[in-house]
Write a structure and sequence with these properties.
This is YlxR family protein. The chain is α+β, with helices and mostly antiparallel strands and 91 residues long. The protein is built from three helices and five strands. It is globular. The N and C termini lie far apart (37 Å).
Length: 91
Amino acid sequence: MSVQKKVPMRKCVATGDMFPKKELVRIVRSKEGDVSVDLTGKKSGRGAYLSKSKEAVELAKKRNILANQLQVKIPEEIYEELLSMINGDGK
């Protein structure tokens, strides 16, 4: 008899939809206030999850959602890194 493993779910801060954790990208604010993209999902600090879609990234940028969630100004490079990562995935 096999036990089904529970899949961790997280909510995309832009769309509000629930996804398996592996389908989202985590943006982290460290204690020093530095913001970075956390591809491993294990960096320490305050995190916000964003779905890997161009629409979600653009919505988060337009409505300033990441800045509100992480309580820090988000550099333009973070959005550029997210968009290039999504386009690189072929999604």
